[in-house]
Amino acid sequence: MNYSGTHSEKAVPAGELDRRHVGQTVSFQSNEFTVVFGTIAGIARTEARVYLALLGVAGGMHLKDEYDLPAGQTVYLQPDPLSNAEKSLSDAGKVVKDKFEEIAKNLRDRQQNTDSQ
Questions:
Q1: Stretch 83-88: mean pLDDT, rounded?
Q2: Is 17:44 a contact under the CB 8 Å cutoff?
Q3: Starting from the edge strand earliest in sequence, which strands make up the sheet with 74-77, in order?
């Protein structure tokens, strides 16, 4: 098996995971036969390994809720809805600000034209 995530997931090296990723959904191939999906409950790192504690994984006969991965192994993160919403709001705010500046400039230009006549 060669798991490569889905089109909506973001591929990142396990070594780049940090506290910002706690609570996000992650998927990765833990061995030749198993793909793991879960929610990151905790992350511990050394220079060479990343240790993940996951919610929603344990309980099956062969499933565990702790995994150690090489720092270079690719894991796949679901998009963070809060970050996406924050970015969308920020982008919308910039558009509104630009429009207000354009309207203010037009009003100033109009005022200068009436003053000069």
A1: 66
A2: no
A3: 10-13, 74-77, 25-29, 35-45, 49-55, 66-70
Comparing CA positions, the residue from 59, 62, 66 lying closest to residue 41 is 66
From residue 112, alpha-carbon distances to 10, 70, 77, 108, 115 in Å are 52, 66, 54, 6, 5
Burial of 107 (0-12, 13-18, 19+ CB in 10 A): exposed
Spell out the alpha helix ranges (H) of 1-117. Answer: 81-116
Q: Is the pLDDT of residue 70 over 90?
A: yes
CB of 69 closer than 8 Å to CB of 54: no
Cβ–Cβ under 8 Å, residues 29 and 7? no
- Residue 24: what pLDDT? 92
Which region among 27-31, 62-66, 102-106 has the lowest average model confidence (pLDDT)? Answer: 62-66
Q: At 22, is the secondary structure helix, strand, or coil?
A: coil
pLDDT at residue number 1:
78
